[in-house]
Amino acid sequence: MKFIERKIVFHGEHFAKFYSEQQPSVQEKIEYVLRIVRLVERVPKKFLDHIQGSEGLYEIRVEFESNIYRIFCCFDEGFLVILFNGFQKKTQKTPQIMLEKATRLKQEYFEMKERQLHEKRRNQKR
Question: Tens of pLDDT along 85-125?
């Protein structure tokens, strides 16, 4: 197994809110899975998988006891994982409203990044 170091970035307060609402034992499991995502070059699908029908949206998969949790994310510049919203999965299929929220947050993240890049370039020209 080859190890690397991915930087994990949190966009907004969505993930922090989700995380803080979990029991300490669930938080520990989330931290364990995030460590795998951060350090393992080829993360097993058990922990990270592309969401079918989406453009660059992934879900981090956390299982604890009989509960399933999903945390939406995407990659940016190769090794950067952006964490968006998370939820406890209670049905076989991911709720459409959660997918729409993650898609919106992903778009918001890249628009914000583009604005910051424009601002930085404008300030460099001065």
Answer: 999 988 888 889 999 999 999 999 999 999 998 888 888 87
Q: Identify the pLDDT of residue 121.
A: 84
Number of neighbouring beta carbons within 10 Å of residue 79: 13
Give the residue from 101, 80, 57, 62 showing the smallest Cα distance to 10. 80
**Residue that the structure tokens 């370039």 belong to:** 121
Q: How many Å apart are CA 17 and CA 21, to the nearest integer?
A: 6
Q: How many separate helices (H) and strands (E) can be counted in the chain? A: 3, 5
Cα–Cα distance between 20 and 17 in angstroms, integer? 5
List, in order of start, the domains of the chain with CATH numbers: 7-125 (3.30.2310.20)
Residue type, 9: V
Tell me how far the alpha carbon of residue 85 is from its chain's centroid. Answer: 7
Please name the amino acid found at residue 63.
Answer: E
